[in-house]
Structure prediction request, 153 residues.
Amino acid sequence: MSEQLVRCLPHERSTEMLGRRLSPLDGLIFLHGELGSGKTALVRGFLRALGYRGAVKSPTYTLVEPYELSGRRILHLDIYRLSDPEELEYLGVRDEQSGDNTLLVEWPDRAGGSLGEPGVEIFMEYDGAARRATVRALSEPAASFIKVLSGLK
Ligand SMILES: Nc1ncnc2c1ncn2[C@@H]1O[C@H](COP(=O)(O)OP(=O)(O)OP(=O)(O)O)[C@@H](O)[C@H]1O
Ligand SMILES: [Mg+2]
Prediction:
């Protein structure tokens, strides 16, 4: 059932544009990739598409940043500095994993599997000065969405 989309992203604005296009996706979304590979740039586009106008930075120290946009609750997590997966409990992340919330998680491996299975995984890679993104849909609704998106330029 998994569906995959690969995109070459020559500039930061291409990364943001991909994020915009992915904004209809909800649930648990994992963002993999090295430091500076463009995970936050993609999240910025995602949030902008939903009407957010402020600055978007990785919540490297606070670990989680909540947004209420277009009737949706979106949580942007950067858990690079998570010392223990247990910490997610204290941060209230578990409670946020219900209902229709969207969680965009940078460095999801730091959670040691405790966040559960994502519906979508995004892999950001360096490609010279540019980037390459692979979007993998693991849930049925995300797979149908990605299939449609693959048909678009
Ligand atoms: N497609 C692209 N081509 C070239 N540069 C890009 C592209 N997308 C993003 N960048 C640049 O790469 C950097 C990406 O930074 P960003 O904070 O998004 O990375 P990150 O993956 O979130 O890193 P971290 O793991 O440290 O949070 C920025 O300087 C941005 O301008
Ligand atoms: Mg980041």
